Amino acid sequence: MTRTPTVPGRHDERGPEGRRPMRSAVLPGDSALSRLRPLDGAAVSMTSGFWAERIRTNRTTTIGAGHAQLIHAGNFQNLRLAAGANGRYQALSDTSGSPFPFLDTDVYKWLEAIGWELGRGRDPDMETAADEAIDLVRAAQHEDGYINSYVQVVGGGLPYRDLAWGHEFYCVGHLIQAGIAWQRSLDDGRLLGIAMRAADHIDREFGPGGRDGIDGHPEIEMALVELWRTTGERRYLDLASRLIELRGHGLLGAGRFGSAYWQDHAPVRTATTVAGHAVRQLYLDCGAVDVAVETGDQELLDAVIRRWTDMVATRRYVTGGLGSRRWDEAFGDPYELPPDQAYAETCASIASVMLGWRLLLATGEPRFADAIERTMFNGMLSGVSLDGTRFFYVNPLQVRSRRSAGEGEGAGRKAWYPCACCPPNLMRLLSSWEQYVASTDDAGIQIHQYGSGTIAAETAGGPVRLEVETDYPWHGRVLVRILESPAEPWTLTMRIPPGGRSVTVTDPAGSVVRPPVDAGSVDCHRAWRADDTVELAMELPPRVIASDPRTDATRGCVVVERGPLVYCIETADIPDAVELEDVAVAEAVEPVATDRSDVGASIVGLSMPASIRKGATSTLGNDIEIGAIPYFAWANRAVAAMRVWIPTVDSAAPTDTDTGPVEGSAQRDG
């Protein structure tokens, strides 16, 4: 692989504050308004267990499948056309009849995933495919730095004529993030050089003193902040800050869905709730957090936290999914969370993980790590099949047995989509997932997410290496072993997942601590020695949780959870003669954990008694036994009916039987 750094004078890049770059998608500066610091992705390795398997599938299968689909869908060909080749632009149309203008980002997100993966280890096939793609992107870029295959081929070559729908800044944002991944993982500046020239083109026209304009789809804001963090060029941070401040003043007009659709209805500092297109809102708030922590703007950071808190309390599905309106891919009103009409776009779940991580670093509050866990295990992971080759764009919480004509196909995953933003987004998140596992501060190391592997970090006294052993989420034991430690004391902080019960922590001296049930984390401070161990032990009993009665669509229903996992029922797990819509459970039903390796390796399912509701016709009598599987694993068998929220026998609004997170109620993870 040819590695030609294109950042002048920065081959041994140390960033704006003199630090050597790390393999991290988010890297706040040393003076940032940030409570925690990310670890180098190279210092965290998932070696076995749940997340290691999914990272491995992403690397060995999903990214390669994505490459084949990008060829088939025409994304590479469109870039060739922008570079001067002959042919026809390949893109389907959106609801307005216009071809999708943002398909270059599918290539950029795929390249970002490869950048993180190659930082983990070489792969000749991946390297060859990526080299060809990078050469193609370079060839497509105009001499003045502008790049957008849609505008160059279909749009007459005139930039920035349709800021509302053109997605030009959005595309450059994803290009920047891909370039940063390659620079930080591989010291390879090819993509970063292309991205800088594209960002400079935007800055010349829209930077301070230039034209007032914002993109209809936020995304570039967080990318520009990271570009400043990488290059030390202040103009990128200034441009990001300017774009944040310009939004909310009606520059984009009402459009088809109203100004709230693209968050142009109220200034970012004063908007009290999330609004409009879910992914756009979450990407915008990612950029706002990045600007806030780098400029020391507590008011801006508080505005994002205020929106997040309200969103989780009133607009988040129990799976972590976001967006309840299909027509405009938008947030609905408070407690408007219909399970069958849920949009819950996979990209929205990914965006919420990205935002949650930024808020966790900024504040150190465990609730943001709790939210990341819930979304990763449920709202995000449901977006890709167990074998890593098929995807969901929309993640409903209910699919009916009897569906309208033409809707049957929509219940199954697809190999790709005409608007394929979600599959490569999944690829880049899974490729960078190890970056979200742990952090550090002046006191020590914090472990936020659990999986077997190793963690290395620098503390004030010197280097630390940890080994983590766990079968989480299937079992609740997490063992941390000290492999290396300085003599000086430091603090190991372990998050206590809200899904655990009867939590105990055993330190190296054998002392047992029982943190309060609502404790967000536990601190172990001492002088550590090699082979010291700390054990976090949690019971993971199944939990039955009632819907908030303010959520009309699920009033009188319950959801079943175990650990961080939300469970669902599929037709395959009820008796043949029964329709899923006729199944109900008692309010006090007690599910039992069962082996479901028939669905996927190591999967723990649930079994529970149920009834056939009054009025339903059945030859089985009223009492039946049903199974439930983790929501992320649904639609890996024949797709029939599925539901997350289960009606109770009397259809009355029950009382919570647990203190876990409830759809539409503010719990610790919100």
Describe this structure as you would to a colleague.
By secondary structure, this protein is of the alpha+beta class. The protein folds into three domains: 55-263 and 278-436, Alpha/alpha barrel (Glycosyltransferase); 439-539, Sandwich (Immunoglobulin-like), CATH 2.60.40; 543-647, no CATH class. 31% of the residues lie in helices and 17% in strands. The chain has helices at 50-73, 75-82, 104-120, 124-140, 149-153, 168-186, 190-206, 220-231, 234-246, 278-295, 298-314, 346-363, 366-380, 422-431; strands at 37-38, 44-48, 398-399, 438-440, 444-447, 452-459, 462-470, 477-484, 490-495, 501-506, 512-513, 521-526, 533-539, 542-546, 557-562, 565-570, 583-584, 592-595, 604-612, 623-630, 642-643, 646-647. The strands form three sheets. Strands 3, 14, 15, 16, 17, 18, 19, 20, 21 and 22 form a ten-stranded antiparallel β-sheet that branches. Strands 2-6-7-8-13-10-11 form a seven-stranded antiparallel β-sheet. A hairpin with a 6-residue loop joins strand 7 (462-470) and strand 8 (477-484). Helix 3 runs parallel beside helix 14 (422-431) and helix 12 packs antiparallel against helix 13 (366-380). The longest helix is centred in the first third of the chain and has 24 residues, at 50-73. It is globular. The protein starts with 36 loop residues before the first strand and ends in a 23-residue tail after the last strand. Mean pLDDT is 92; it is low at 1-20 and 652-670.
